[in-house]
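Page 37, continued from 36.
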């Protein structure tokens, strides 16, 4: 089994139909490509089909992405596919956005530093200076973009410029506590995710633990979701819960929630980096790792 240098991941989504898997596998076989892992799902509601196939060329060095695109093109056209080919050796790039809370950023940076999360982090952006030292410790460029009602549009324009300049593929709101405008959400559609500190759809908004405590819940949680104009309504990628009781104070909920938020966000970033996440209307398809 070759290392990452010869591993590829093919991701496909298209209207569901008979013969898709056979056509894809047949093309890969014809190109002498060895499938190491493959997952697929057809949604009976959206009538949409999703497939993720990992493969490597049998003969090292015999594979060309241009030739693959040429050969695969006929299959893609026949089924109306949206498809992408990802080289496993190329680390996807995630621009991180934070405010003052450091637990999600700290966790992502630890996994990045220890190579548990094979990604590239070109920049950390914040509307406060509190987390600049953490970025400097990891030698990651830090950009302070304050946000007020008056500067919001310019601040978001600068953030989008940084996404372009750093060529970040994804944007992660790692407890970034400003609501992004519709325009910015459109610019980042399908490539920006947020960690919300509740088990959505319960307790949307800025203070979910206070809402949870007031409601007297017995489970708290966290949700990683795509960012859309509708606050905390985006398609869900990952969720997790933690048991609490009548004795649990709001501060204890916030403390317990930190670990849940950090884990949920790290799992969502890992799933995106592994090319296992697909948008499926208001929902997602997330293939297991
Ligand atoms: N367009 C979107 N932007 C953001 C989303 C989203 O789903 N869509 N998620 C939030 C994160 N978040 C909850 O997870 C959240 C953050 C902030 C607020 C809020 O009301 N903020 C106030 C300002 C608060 C402050 O200055 O500290 C506001 O923006 O007026 C609600 C929910 C990130 N952005």
């Amino acid at each position: 089994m070759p290392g990452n240098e010869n591993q590829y991941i093919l991701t496909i989504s298209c209207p569901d139909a008979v013969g898709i898997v056979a056509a894809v596998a047949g093309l890969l076989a014809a190109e002498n490509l060895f499938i190491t892992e493959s997952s697929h799902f057809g949604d009976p509601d959206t009538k949409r089909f999703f497939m993720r196939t990992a493969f490597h060329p049998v003969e090292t060095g015999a594979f060309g992405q241009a030739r693959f695109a040429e050969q695969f093109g006929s299959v893609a056209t026949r089924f109306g596919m949206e498809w992408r080919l990802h080289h496993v050796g190329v680390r996807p790039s995630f621009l991180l956005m934070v405010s003052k809370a450091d637990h999600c950023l700290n966790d992502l940076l630890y996994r990045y530093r220890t190579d548990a999360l094979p990604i590239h982090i070109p920049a950390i952006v914040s509307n406060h200076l509190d987390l600049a030292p953490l970025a400097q410790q990891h030698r990651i460029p830090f950009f302070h973009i304050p946000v007020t009602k008056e500067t919001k549009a310019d601040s978001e324009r600068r953030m989008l410029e940084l996404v372009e300049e750093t060529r970040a593929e994804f944007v992660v709101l790692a407890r970034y506590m400003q609501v992004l405008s519709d325009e910015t959400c459109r610019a980042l559609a399908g490539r920006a995710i947020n960690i919300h500190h509740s088990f959505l759809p319960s307790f949307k908004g800025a203070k979910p633990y206070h809402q949870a405590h007031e409601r007297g819940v017995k489970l708290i949680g966290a949700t990683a979701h795509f960012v859309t104009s509708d606050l905390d309504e985006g398609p869900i990628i990952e969720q997790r819960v933690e048991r609490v009781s009548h004795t649990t104070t709001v501060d204890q909920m916030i403390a317990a929630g930190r670990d849940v938020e950090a884990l949920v966000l790290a799992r969502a970033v890992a799933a995106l980096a592994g090319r296992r996440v697909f948008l499926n209307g208001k929902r997602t398809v997330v293939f297991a790792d």
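The chain has a mean pLDDT of 97. Flag for discussion at group meeting. Helices lie at 20-30, 65-79, 103-113, 132-137, 152-165, 182-187, 208-215, 250-273.
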